[in-house]
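Notes, p. 3: input format for complexes.
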Amino acid sequence: MNDTGEPQEGHNKIPAGWLIFFFAAIIFLIWYVVSYTPAISGWSFYDKYKKEMASAAKTETAAPASKYAGDEKAIGEGKEIFASNCAACHNADATGGIGPNLIAELKYGSTEQDLYISAAKGRPNGMPGFLPQLGSDRIIKVVAYLEKLRKK
Ligand code: HEC
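Output follows (152 residues plus heme C):
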């Protein structure tokens, strides 16, 4: 303590940087409350959630594999695509090699959608994703070919 009784005005100066921070914090707080209060800005966690779910659903159903089901020409192309891209690991007749047998029961599911995702995005234990290389149309053809093999 300083007991001289002199006024201590030097102690009352607030550093400019601190003031700037202080007012910036208040402005930020007001902005934050206004923009995230549903009654003021209309922002809603549920709206955001709904939008995210809707866009995710769109990408998940973006693989209408069945468009080539029974289409012999497309299945023939699928067979060629399989021979040059997949047979190295899954064997020419898809009965398996480095990769699993694709005519037996499948770990990741065997609906068109499952097969499409396996081929397009890959699977963790050594299955590469082929979407960048083949594009979705050719993958759909391979899937149609696999489905035909699986039905036999
Ligand atoms: C480099 C080798 C390799 C190539 C090339 C390859 N695969 Fe695979 N594939 C694998 C392996 C390994 C697995 C097992 C992955 C796992 O268990 O996580 C697998 C898994 C799969 C599965 C899922 C099987 C299950 O049990 O659910 C499908 C479907 C599949 N491959 C299709 C294809 C198709 C179609 C192609 C060609 C476009 C292809 N693969 C090319 C190695 C390969």
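The mean pLDDT is 87.
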